[in-house]
Amino acid sequence: MFNKYDIIVVGAGHAGCEAAAAAANLGSRVLLVTMNMGTIAQMSCNPAMGGVAKGQIVREIDAMGGYSGIISDQTTLQFRMLNRSKGPAMWSPRAQIDRMRFAEEWRLKLEQTPNVDFWQDTVSGLLVKGDKVLGVKTSLGMEIEAAAVVLTNGTFLNGLIHIGEKRFGGGRTAEKAATGITEQLVELGFEAGRMKTGTPPRIDGRSLDYTKMEEQWGDEERGRFSYTKVPLVEEQRCCWITYTNEAVHETLKEGFEKSPMFTGRIKGLGPRYCPSIEDKINRFAERERHQIFVEPEGWNTVEIYVNGFSTSLPEDVQYKALTKIPGFENAKMFRPGYAIEYDYFPPTQLDLTLETKLIKNLFFAGQINGTTGYEEAACQGFIAGINAHQKINDRHELIMKRSESYIGVLIDDLVTKGTEEPYRMFTSRAEHRLLLRQDNADIRLSSIGHQLGLISDERMERVEQKIADAEKIVQHIKKQSVEPEEVNQMLESVGSSAVNQKVKLVQLLSRPQVEIKNLREVLSSFDQLLSGFETEVIEQAEIKIKYESYFEKEMEIVEKMKKMEDREINPEFDYQTLGSLSKEAREKLIRIKPRTLGQASRISGVSPSDISVLMVHMSK
């Protein structure tokens, strides 16, 4: 029935979709195997994309030719740029998404990709010969051959759902778990573990009293994720904010004795930074209330996502507590929240390409690697899909550097340090975050997508034009001078000191209180000059001027680190011969097999003195 495929992608969540699209667009014949064709790109948890650091990842995927940004823009309910009051390194795009339309658009996008085929079935195992994967086995008894396989199983590997004292197998509500793969991989020598995540109840929006909540609208000047000019929905939907209270907390505590989390029935570790509501009131007992975000799930549905109320307590306790939240007094529940445990494989068993070290041409992406979040999964799928294609075609692998992308930080963290709890991206994880901003992802990464063949010549030319236009603005600002009478009134209005002599525009714009828009208001010739440039070009020029000295210092640090990052270590290097290494360092280096001296320096347990020993040996 099937000819041999180049690549089989197992699972059609965010990682699987990006993996299939990337590999197919590079020219590989791809088979996307999913348990249910109706749940491709399902948003299992919150109906949103982006957020702090996560929004940067979506823009990075888009900059290199992935689809998450485009599909998010096509299905956005509301867009907000978070952290605008902070510096540009912290600005993070986030969008509420129409959950059903998001899944529909992803499926349509994949169906319109010529090299992607689909098969609805459950993968029960892998075809392996020696140390190489040859394809997959399915529950229908099919054996499908491929040159490479990408596993993106999400929460389905031996998934176990918990609601109070009830527990049952499942990878997602109303969907069965996947068995067989974990057992086979462990038999092949892989180490496996258990993790946990959870989701809140869904509510009938018609039963809520929004007058008791705070409105939360999107940005008036609508932003976007994608650097393409995909048409945006003009309207935006409102979200709301409400709060728990002591009555809610006391009601929830009534169910603690039946909580699978507190009784020890759940063994896996959950995400520290997205705790369940019972965990929050237990850990932060001094807080009188917790914020609840009331988020619509789409344009044409009444279903509401209760963000901040993730729980696995008994459904009757969940409902009773919900009705004590302001605005929820008459709430009708569609389905209760639940916790889910699932298998993952510690990612130190991977190479930086996301290929496994034990089995050639087998790649892991998404929650199977211990991450949490759509964005983290999507970027791993994108990189795994690219590298699977590159590997089977004997082309150069793609390894993202920490200094060039959040994607590089995420993958390096996973492979080098591993994770024992669901890994979530934060801006604080990136040591060069001032350079890795959401506004310049296209400038940083489009050339990579273009070299691979995922970005068109026309799109690359637009990026180059953006760089050139921003530089034109910068040079004009550095050259143009203004008289005191032209700007002093404006300076006073923004709380900045007046000038008493002619000054360069660049000196004024370097002041934290002064923005380009302030100068445009009082300098008609300057305003006229800028009217010919796009908003994002003007923003790029402004950021460049305001933070130029910081960028220069950051680049100096990157260049110093580059010397270590460029010092490659032979993968067959015998660390046992170096008696001066500490025992822990030797064990970690043998297990992780770092590619470079820089990667070795980030391994937990490898000290600076161990690195010095390596450097001395390598210099010989």
Account of the protein in words:
The longest helix has 23 residues, at 457-479. Helix 6 runs antiparallel to helix 8 and helix 12 (457-479) packs across helix 17 (535-546). The mean pLDDT is 95. 47% of the residues are buried. Strand 8 (132-138) and strand 9 (143-151) form a beta hairpin. The chain is an alpha+beta fold. Strands 1, 2, 6, 7, 8, 9 and 20 form a seven-stranded mixed β-sheet that branches. Strands 14-15-16-17-13-18 form a six-stranded antiparallel β-sheet, with no helix packed on it. It has a four-stranded antiparallel β-sheet with strand order 11-10-19-12, with no helix packed on it. It is built from 21 helices and 22 strands. It is globular, with a radius of gyration of 26 Å.
Q: Mean pLDDT, rounded to whole units?
A: 95
Largest sheet at a glance?
7 strands, mixed
Helix content: 25-40%
Uncertain ranges: none
Query: What is the terminal-to-terminal distance?
Result: 57 Å
What general outline do the C-alpha atoms trace?
A: globular
Overall radius of gyration:
26 Å
Portion in beta strands: 15-25%
Which structural class do you get from the secondary structure elements? alpha+beta
Number of helices: 21
